[in-house]
Amino acid sequence: MIKKTVLALALGWLGQMAAAGDAEASAAAGDRMEWWQDARFGMFIHWGVYSKAGGEWKGTTDHGEWLQFTAKIPLAEYTEFARGFNPVDFDAEEWVQIAKDAGMKYMVITTKHHDGFAMFDSPSNEYNIVDWTQFGRDPIKELADASHDAGIHFGVYYSLGRDWHDPDVPTGGEKGRSAGDRSNLIDYPDESIKDFSKYFERKVKPQVRELLTQYGAVDIMWFDTPEKISAEQSAELLEMIRELQPQCIVNNRIGNGLGDYGTPEQEIPEGRSVKPWETCMTVSSRIWGYNKTVGYRDSEELIRNLIDISSKSGNYLLNVGPTGEGIIPSESVERLQAMGDWLRVNGEAIYACGPTPFGGEAGHYSDTEKDKHGKPKFVSDWKWRATTKPGKLYIHIFQWSETIKLPAFGEKVIKAYLLADPDQVELTFTQSDTGIVVTLPEQAPDAVASVVCLEFK
Ligand code: JFZ
Fold this sequence. Notes:
By secondary structure, the chain is α/β, with parallel strands linked by helices. The protein contains ten helices and 16 strands. It is 30% helix and 20% strand. It has a seven-stranded parallel sheet, sandwiched between helices. The chain has a four-stranded antiparallel sheet with strand order 10-11-16-13, covered by helices on one side. A three-stranded antiparallel sheet has the order 12-15-14, with no helix packed on it. Strand 8 and strand 9 form a beta hairpin.
């Protein structure tokens, strides 16, 4: 009997410890994530050797950061091309200022994309910008320092399961994907002899350690394409990151269900998610790395996307693709300036806000169109969105008219005004069990999105 009691007590204690551990872990995650969830908006940067080509290669012009793969360039030719990388116009402080002026609170830059080339000083692997190119400088250090000086949180992207320079990085082979579908089969054609663990020990762990020990505070590790990493390896990598920089936030592409937040790509999920999430998207119409001929999304879409994402408690990581010389294309800068102009007037309704109190997003599922996952496409109703703060409800109006009609709202509204109005001249409104109707002035303060603030008890 005593043995059973002791065992029961031990199990109970273990259970409590486990629960306490979970609680402690989730509390730590909450602390780690607080600035990030308030930040809402960050700059993604896809910059590498591939940028030097501007999307062109021997007459074809639709390439980007996948240049080595899509142009089928043998490694010997690509590594020689890499030696010529020399971004003489790169100015880290200029890039950070562009992000700050856009209202972006953090940045994430590609330190190693699928081509395996390290854009940082990597003592563990000579295929890096300092040792391999005539440029000879470490842009990641320059960007980290400039970000820290400017009060921007600094993060790094690292391609975890795709590396076209290393002989031991297998891909695909399950879930309808052919073996090697994202591998370098030109130089390493035999997938069956590739051992991910060798690459993980030889390159991934040393380089992640370099990234987290050479540049001061790294607040985000943005892994990509986990591919063949095992659950044990994802856990080992996460433990190493937590030991080196406990404040560092890690995305879900570390693999195997780990990570602090989800990363929908080039799309905005409908409805809200309880788990933190971030949509990553290109300012260009579709290509992450620099491409001379690609089109660009207009600033109206970008501003409304930020509002839509914020209304669902998400973050927006918006990507620029600098040139091989180190310049962020003017098409991107112009759009980011327009976003910064809007945020300087209306940022109170975005930063550190909570989601819409009105439940699901307005819209319907298409009877004909499918989304990228093959499911019926959700067609948003783009008339307005809502965000919240204690005592305040912000209505972001995309289609201006004489009044704005809102669903029932459980709190008593005491005041309504235009956020853009420094005098906060009160707008007339009615509130009943069926909803709120606010009478709007004839002129909208902003053609893209005007914000009405409703204060409530
Ligand atoms: C990956 C990269 O291949 C791409 O070059 C870029 O860096 C992007 C941010 O990340 O692209 C992906 C990764 C995952 C999915 C789609 C594209 N996915 O899960 O659908």
